[in-house]
């Protein structure tokens, strides 16, 4: 049945519980591309025959193969794109150095993409917060309390405590 | 795992599907009974001749109704049990349905026990309330 391998790729990813990155299915993707190549070549040949050989009865067949090609393309792209979304999430979950188990699950191109993403993110973070930059991958949840505790010399804060700007926290 | 993973959402509630949505691809992968109106040469095994009589015309809806009913029944009646046997032979969409049924059942049980109105206030609010109390005690 056409597009079966492509659907298998999609299902494999859909089944991988939220965000988990399964191993790159190189074999599966290759089979999808091979099917697409075969469909394309058959269509090329039939199109020529339909045009020059007057075989207009081939047109429904050509259209059917074209639909299959589009479906395969969609599945392959969705598979690759969803994997990139998961890989991007890894930067935020694990940091810039990934455990080797995860690295083995990525294709060479995906690794390259990850490295570019890391770089972009690092450049962006350096541009924030003045001199040292700002690591936005830390402290991603807001603090439990709006109040931050400091230690300040008494002469600095007595006024502010009076004014209700600061609160004197004992303990 | 990943709070940073934002999959492409299904376009099911919108005007059209999302091209890259895995959900939409799976959702649109149905097998429908069809009849070839015109011949399609050279497709070989993909179009074996099938006859469509009225018995076969109704088989699909009937099968769906039966399965749907069973999923509804089982999901609405299995409370705090091991449901692995019940979902073993369901496909992804059916499992989603089953989960929805279970959630409904659990929510209902919660409500019956009077736990439905139990909201957890956000930490910020809780801390604020605690502070107000200490102000008063002073």
From TrEMBL, chain A:
Q: What is its main location?
A: nucleus
Q: Coiled-coil annotation: which residues?
A: none
Intracellular or extracellular location(s): Chromosome; Nucleus
- Cell inner membrane: present as a keyword of the record? no
Occurrences of domain GINS subunit (ranges): 42-128
Its Gene Ontology cellular component terms are: GINS complex
Q: Which InterPro entries match?
A: GINS_A, GINS_bundle-like_dom_sf, GINS_Psf1
Q: What are the alphabetically sorted keywords of the record?
A: Chromosome, DNA replication, Nucleus
Q: Does the keyword Nucleus apply?
A: yes
In the record, biological process GO terms are: DNA strand elongation involved in mitotic DNA replication
Give the signal peptide as a residue range, or say none if absent. none
Q: Which family does it belong to?
A: Belongs to the GINS1/PSF1 family.
Function in brief: Required for correct functioning of the GINS complex, a complex that plays an essential role in the initiation of DNA replication, and progression of DNA replication forks. GINS complex is a core component of CDC45-MCM-GINS (CMG) helicase, the molecular machine that unwinds template DNA during replication, and around which the replisome is built.
Subunit and interaction comment: Component of the GINS complex which is a heterotetramer of GINS1, GINS2, GINS3 and GINS4. Forms a stable subcomplex with GINS4. GINS complex interacts with DNA primase in vitro. Component of the CMG helicase complex, a hexameric ring of related MCM2-7 subunits stabilized by CDC45 and the tetrameric GINS complex.
Under which name does UniProt file this protein?
DNA replication complex GINS protein PSF1
Query: What organism does this protein naturally occur in?
Result: Camelus dromedarius (Dromedary)
Question: What does the record give as the organism's lineage?
Answer: Eukaryota, Metazoa, Chordata, Craniata, Vertebrata
TrEMBL record, chain B:
InterPro entries, per this entry? GINS_A, GINS_bundle-like_dom_sf, GINS_Psf3, GINS_Psf3_sf
Keywords of the record, alphabetical order, are: DNA replication, Nucleus
Family (UniProt): Belongs to the GINS3/PSF3 family.
Name of the protein this chain belongs to: DNA replication complex GINS protein PSF3
Q: Where in the cell is it found?
A: Nucleus
Q: How does it assemble?
A: Component of the GINS complex.
- Principal localization? nucleus
A biological process (GO) annotation for this entry?
mitotic DNA replication initiation
């Amino acid at each position: 049945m056409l597009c079966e391998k492509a659907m298998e790729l999609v299902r494999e990813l859909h089944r991988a519980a939220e965000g988990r990155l399964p191993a790159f299915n190189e074999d599966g993707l290759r089979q999808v591309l091979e099917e697409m190549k075969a469909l394309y070549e058959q269509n090329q040949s039939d199109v020529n025959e339909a045009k020059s050989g007057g075989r207009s009865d081939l047109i429904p067949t050509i259209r059917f193969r074209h639909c299959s090609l589009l479906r395969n393309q969609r599945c392959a792209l969705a598979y690759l794109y969803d994997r990139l979304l998961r890989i991007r999430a890894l930067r935020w979950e694990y940091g810039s150095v990934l455990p080797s188990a995860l690295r083995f699950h990525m294709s060479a191109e995906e690794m390259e993409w990850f490295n570019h993403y890391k770089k972009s993110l690092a450049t962006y973070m350096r541009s924030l917060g003045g001199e040292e930059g700002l690591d936005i991958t830390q402290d991603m949840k807001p603090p439990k309390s709006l109040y931050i505790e400091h230690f300040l010399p008494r002469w600095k804060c007595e006024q502010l405590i009076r004014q209700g700007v600061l609160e004197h926290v004992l303990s | 795992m990943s709070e940073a993973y934002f999959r492409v959402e299904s376009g099911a509630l919108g005007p059209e599907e999302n091209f890259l949505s895995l959900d939409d691809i799976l959702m649109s992968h149905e097998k429908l009974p069809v009849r070839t109106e015109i011949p399609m040469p050279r497709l070989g095994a993909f179009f074996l001749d099938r006859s469509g009589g009225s018995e076969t015309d109704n088989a699909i809806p009937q099968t769906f109704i039966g399965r749907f009913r069973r999923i509804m029944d089982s999901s609405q009646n299995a409370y705090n049990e091991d449901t692995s046997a019940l979902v073993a032979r369901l496909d992804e969409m059916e499992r989603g349905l089953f989960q929805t049924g279970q959630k409904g059942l659990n929510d209902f049980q919660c409500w019956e026990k009077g736990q439905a109105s139990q909201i957890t206030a956000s930490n910020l609010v809780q801390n604020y309330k605690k502070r107000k109390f200490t102000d008063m005690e002073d």
